[in-house]
C-alpha cells in the first residue's frame, strides 16, 4: 500500500509499504478516504515539532470505511464510515484512570510519535474509532477532529450558558471554538487583529467582535461583559503576551484556558490569580469529545463545509505544500 512519509524534516514522499493487517482481537482495518492537513502536520514536516519523531507517516484527522474487523469487535461492522481518534494511551496511569487519557504518561499521538493516517489503510483498536453518519462526506467529516480540540477547551473551561466567553484570536482554532461555544448558548466575545476574521467570527456566532489593535481594547471587552470581565478566556493566540493579557482581563472566579506549546516565559504575579481566585487551565487534544462533535455535525449545529479551501489526492502532496507555502488557504484535505 502507499503512504506519505516524512523521512526527515522537509522531506516527504509517497512510499510503498506492506499493507497493514489485523493483528489483535479488538482491531478494525480501515480503508482511508480522506485526511486533513493540520498546523501540527506542517510543523512536523518542517522539523519544528518538539514531540515528533522520524521517519513518520503523518495524519491525525482521518476518515474512512471499515473494511475488515477482528473477531471480538462489537462496535463496528464492515462498511461503517468512521473517524479515528488521534491518540493511544496506556489505560493504567493516574491520568488514564481519571478520564484524562489525552495526557497519559505514555501518550502516543498518531502522525506525531506513532504512524498516522496518510496511507491507504490503517488498523486501530475499535475503541479508537467513531461511527460517522453515511450522508456526511468523508472530506467534511475530517473536520470533526479539530472541533474535538475546541470542544475540549470549552469543557476544560467548564463553559456554561451563563458564561461570557472571550475567544482571543479568531483564526482557524478560534473559529472552531466559537462554533462549539455557540452550542452552549453563552455570550461570545471574539478578538482578532484582522477585520476579515472578525466578520467571520460574527457570522459564526460571536456576540461581539473586537479588533485587538484597538487602543481601547480592554474597555471594549469590559463593556461587552457588563463590566465584570469575561468569565472564561480561551487563548488561541498562544504566546507569552496573550497569557498575560487574559489573566488581566478575566473576571473574578474566571478561567483562562491555554492551548499553545510556547516555551517562552510569561510574567504573571501570583496576586492576580489568588486575589480573584482564577483557574489557569491547560487544554490538550481531547478526551471523549468525538461523539459530542459528531452529534453537532449530525444536527447541523456546526456547518463546516466552506472551511475547506483545497482538496488534493495524496499523491499530489507537492501541490498541497505549494498552497501551504503561499499561505492562501483555510483547510486542505487529502483524498486517498
Ligand atoms: Zn489537527
Ligand atoms: Zn496512561
UniProtKB/TrEMBL annotation:
One example GO MF annotation: metal ion binding
Domain Enoyl reductase (ER): 7-334
Alphabetical keyword list: Metal-binding, Oxidoreductase, Zinc
Coiled coil: none
Pfam families in alphabetical order: ADH_N, ADH_zinc_N
Entry keyword Zinc: yes
SMART domains found in the cross-reference section: PKS_ER
Presence of keyword Ion transport: no
Protein's name in the database: L-gulonate 5-dehydrogenase
UniProt organism field: Maledivibacter halophilus
Amino acid at each position: 500500500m502507499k503512504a506519505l512519509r516524512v523521512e526527515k524534516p522537509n522531506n516527504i514522499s509517497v512510499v510503498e509499504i506492506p499493507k497493514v493487517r489485523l493483528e489483535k482481537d479488538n482491531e478494525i482495518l480501515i480503508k482511508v478516504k480522506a485526511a486533513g492537513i493540520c498546523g501540527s502536520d506542517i510543523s512536523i514536516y518542517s522539523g519544528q515539532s518538539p514531540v515528533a519523531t522520524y521517519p513518520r507517516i503523518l495524519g491525525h484527522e482521518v476518515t474512512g470505511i471499515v473494511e475488515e474487523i477482528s473477531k471480538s469487535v462489537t462496535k463496528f461492522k464492515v462498511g461503517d464510515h468512521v473517524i479515528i481518534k488521534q491518540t493511544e494511551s496506556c489505560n493504567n496511569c493516574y491520568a488514564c484512570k481519571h478520564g484524562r487519557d489525552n495526557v497519559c504518561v505514555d501518550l502516543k499521538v498518531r502522525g506525531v510519535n506513532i504512524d498516522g493516517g496518510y496511507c491507504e489503510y490503517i488498523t486501530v483498536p475499535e475503541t479508537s474509532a467513531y461511527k460517522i453518519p453515511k450522508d456526511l462526506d468523508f472530506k467534511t467529516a475530517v473536520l470533526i477532529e479539530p472541533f474535538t480540540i475546541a470542544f475540549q477547551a470549552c469543557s476544560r473551561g467548564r463553559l456554561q450558558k451563563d458564561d461570557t466567553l472571550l475567544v482571543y484570536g479568531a483564526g482557524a482554532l478560534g473559529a472552531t471554538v466559537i462554533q462549539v461555544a455557540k452550542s452552549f448558548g453563552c455570550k461570545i466575545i471574539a478578538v482578532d487583529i484582522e477585520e476579515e476574521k472578525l466578520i467571520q467570527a460574527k457570522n459564526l456566532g460571536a456576540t461581539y467582535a473586537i479588533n485587538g489593535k484597538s487602543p481601547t481594547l480592554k474597555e471594549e471587552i469590559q463593556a461587552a461583559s457588563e463590566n465584570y470581565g469575561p468569565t472564561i478566556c480561551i487563548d488561541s493566540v498562544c504566546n507569552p503576551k496573550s497569557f498575560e493579557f487574559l489573566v488581566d482581563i478575566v473576571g473574578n472566579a474566571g478561567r483562562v484556558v491555554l492551548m499553545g506549546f510556547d516555551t517562552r516565559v510569561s510574567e504573571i504575579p501570583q496576586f492576580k490569580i489568588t486575589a480573584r481566585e482564577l483557574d489557569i487551565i491547560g487544554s490538550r487534544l481531547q478526551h471523549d469529545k468525538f461523539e459530542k462533535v459528531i452529534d453537532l455535525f449530525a444536527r447541523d449545529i456546526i456547518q463546516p463545509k466552506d472551511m475547506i479551501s483545497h482538496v488534493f489526492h495524496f499523491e499530489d502532496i507537492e501541490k498541497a505544500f505549494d498552497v501551504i507555502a503561499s499561505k492562501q488557504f483555510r483547510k486542505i484535505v487529502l483524498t486517498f
